[in-house]
Design brief:
703 residues, alpha/beta, Rossmann fold, six-stranded mixed beta sheet, two-stranded antiparallel ribbon, 30 helices, 12 strands, 64% helix, 7% strand
Length: 703
């Protein structure tokens, strides 16, 4: 059972500047945390599985020399049953990294060892990194690292990735591993006698014919040839530049006969190999892991019985959702008001500057009343809710609650022939639909990923919250202002969210039985332990990765929108502005929906960003020619009622705010993720048609 490796490190062959080290591991073992700590980058980490679906690269300065660290998607196996497993397998096998660091969870060594053993079988240099030792200690679990190293035959190091001081030994050990000559060593896995006898035949042939395997081991190649996995053999043929199945056809035939002679068959090889990995992992784990009283595990179990319980899961989800909305509503108004004052001051300064330099009046109007005013409105209204909502969302993610949400919602989504992970992307959509669409990458099945993308805009993003809250406060909230009003607004907003979730399930069900027929795929959803959120990283990630990212996109599309809005309201034909002509043209159709032409025109012009719909509407009713902001909710209600609004009109506007075409940022993201104009059109039409049907029905019954 010896493994012989004669190939020198790839970096030494190519003369490139950096050696390459792959970072592999199961989902949710802290792999990306290790990557960030070593490279100083900000790769997204989260306490839920499946969030890393692409490889990330960064330069890390080792104890002796720098190297390139590649963070591979989390995977449970190299047998390649999912896209992330295929990405990880192909990089480890066919990109010839100089070494592979396999990150393991100290609280789940047995499960992690399955991947460790597979990587040891194929990688030239392997370093096993046992992470989360602090969590294991809390759970009364101890791991004998020295014995684990002896049994595996590779270097093993224990760390706590969240403590940077524990990473220095890891770098020192990695330097030692990289400096080792690649020779022969004993494999820790012993396959059944029939398999061992069969693979000896192609192994001897590979060594005798001195076929270049470019870093792959003869034993690993022989196993894969014996398995006959067509996808892997195709990748191996492309990598090696030769068809080993053809070159070793006689030896493989002898190996298959040997299998049959010893009571096995070609079809059973894969199962026999998988069982060997599992049994070896069980034996090693039993030898190195000692467990005491699982106090922490008992606490996790008690919490899970409450958070995922039959009668408690959904009420707690609604309570947390309402709490997040209440905090966002209560706190967002103050920074929004401050930003509005700040931008008003800046605009007045810019106006004075333009007057001093003698800029034409129309130029001042275009910049101040058009482009810059729209931009200021988008930032002042959009930034505060995002800056509050995203950190709250990220705290729930970091603590490990979101996987439990996916678990709770798996059954209703599965009933719609969708994937439970869609619950996670739906939650992301509350912050920003563009982020939710991007998050759909965590779903393996292309059909189910497309379902999640097309229906994500059915839940309102934070850009719609201010308008929803304003309309609710004007027409339906009891109590005026203060704590009672904010609680009442949060309750009504939660009810609207429930309506949007119901619409998401309904539309998912309809699509899965029409355009996207199919059976829901199975997926492995690991429920991670509860962990205290890392507040510093939560704030950094929510601000950089989400808030500023989404705000940047919104600002990009808001600038031209301001120019278009100014042109429509300041260019006149026959004594009326172009805006008024368009609103009058749309009015008959809008009346069928319980709206009016100005409302529908405001939604159309709000395509770049939902935040500007209400300001456009107030401008239209006041005929001011520029966006305005009334001093109070009462003033706005008076303006709307004077222009024909009734409670039914308010309900129709609320429904249309929930269900209408996504903003330009979201549709651009849908086009980027699907690569299809057709599916982008479907993503735009789906919520729009639903919203129009509901508004028409409400107007018909109550109007």
């Amino acid at each position: 059972m010896s493994i012989k490796r004669k190939q020198p490190p790839k970096s030494l062959q190519s003369g490139r500047q950096y050696t390459t080290v792959a970072l592999a591991g199961n989902p949710n073992v802290g792999k990306s945390t290790v990557f960030n700590a070593l490279t100083g980058m900000n790769q997204h980490t989260g306490n839920w599985p499946g969030k890393t679906v692409e490889s990330a690269k960064g330069i890390c300065k080792g104890a002796k020399t720098p190297f390139e660290l590649v963070d591979l998607p989390g995977t449970y196996s190299l047998l390649s049953h999912s896209p992330e497993e295929e990405i990880a397998r192909n990089f480890i096998c066919f990109d010839s990294p100089d070494a592979v660091i396999v990150v393991c969870d100290a609280t789940a060594i047995e499960r992690n060892l399955n991947l460790v053993l597979q990587i040891i079988e194929c990688a030239s240099r392997t370093l096993v990194c046992v992470n989360l030792l602090d969590e294991a200690k809390r759970k009364q679990i101890t791991v004998d690292l020295e014995k684990l190293q002896a049994l595996l035959g590779v270097r093993v190091i224990g760390i706590t990735a969240r403590r940077k001081d524990s990473l220095s030994p890891l770098l020192q050990t990695l330097d030692e591993v990289l400096s080792q000559e690649v020779g022969s060593r004993t494999s820790p896995v012993r396959y059944p006698t029939s398999v061992e006898s069969a693979i000896d035949i192609p192994v001897r042939a590979l060594e005798e014919k001195q076929i270049s395997l470019k870093g792959l081991t003869p034993r690993f190649v022989a196993l894969k040839l014996l398995e006959g996995n067509e996808a892997f053999l195709h990748e191996m043929k492309r990598y090696l530049g030769t068809d080993l199945s053809a070159e070793l056809s006689e030896e493989l035939l002898l190996a298959k006969r040997q299998l049959q002679a010893l009571g096995s068959s070609q079809d059973s090889v894969t199962d026999l190999i998988a069982k060997a990995f599992v049994s070896t992992a069980e034996q090693i784990s039993a030898s190195v892991v000692r467990k005491g009283e699982p106090k922490k595990a008992d606490l996790d179990a008690r919490l899970d019985r409450i958070l995922t319980g039959k009668w408690t899961a959904y009420p707690i989800m609604l309570l947390l959702l309402g709490l997040v909305f209440w905090i966002t509503i209560s706190l967002a108004n103050y920074p929004s008001a401050w930003l509005s004052v700040l931008f008003s001051f800046l605009l007045s300064c810019i106006g004075e500057g333009l007057s001093v330099v003698g800029a034409p009046e129309w130029v001042q109007s275009v910049l101040l009343d058009g482009v810059l005013l729209v931009l200021a409105r988008v930032v002042s209204v959009m930034l505060p809710p995002m800056a509050i909502f995203f950190p709250l969302f990220t705290i729930l993610e970091d603590a490990g609650y979101l996987p439990r949400v996916a678990y709770n919602l798996d059954r209703p989504f599965a009933a719609c022939s969708a994937c439970g992970k869609q619950a996670l992307t739906t939650c992301m959509g509350f912050g920003c639909n563009a982020v939710g669409v991007t998050g759909c990458r965590i779903i393996d099945s292309p059909r189910e990923r497309l379902l999640a993308i097309l229906t994500n805009s059915l839940v309102p993003c934070n850009g719609r919250f201010p308008a929803l809250i304003a309309i609710l406060s004007m027409f339906f909230v009891i109590g005026g202002t203060g704590l009672l009003a904010s609680l009442h607004s949060a309750l009504l907003l939660t009810l609207l969210i429930l309506l949007s979730l119901g619409a998401t399930l309904l539309c998912t069900w309809l699509l899965s039985r029409t355009l996207l027929k199919g059976i829901p795929s199975s997926f492995c959803l690991e429920i991670p332990p509860f962990r205290p959120p890392q507040i510093k990283k939560v704030l950094l990630r929510s601000v950089l990765d989400r808030t500023l990212f989404v705000l940047g996109r919104a600002v990009t599309v808001a600038l031209p929108a301001g120019l278009v809005l100014w042109l429509l309201t300041n260019l006149f034909v026959g004594g009326e502005s172009l805006f008024s002509h368009c609103a009058n043209f749309l009015d008959p159709f809008a009346q069928l929906l319980g709206l009016d032409g100005c409302i529908l025109m405001a939604f159309i012009l709000g395509f770049p960003a939902n935040e500007i719909v209400i300001p456009i509407l107030t401008m239209a009713y006041l005929q001011s020619g520029s966006m305005v902001e009334l001093s109070s909710i009462a003033d706005m209600k008076l303006l709307f009622t004077e222009n024909g609004w009734t409670p039914v009109t308010a309900v129709c506007v609320l429904i249309f705010f929930l269900f209408h075409w996504p903003c330009s940022t979201t549709l651009w993201t849908v086009k980027k993720e699907t690569g299809s104009i057709g599916w982008t059109v479907v993503a735009a039409c789906l919520p729009t048609v639903l919203g129009m049907l509901l508004c028409a029905l409400i107007h018909l019954v109550f109007g």
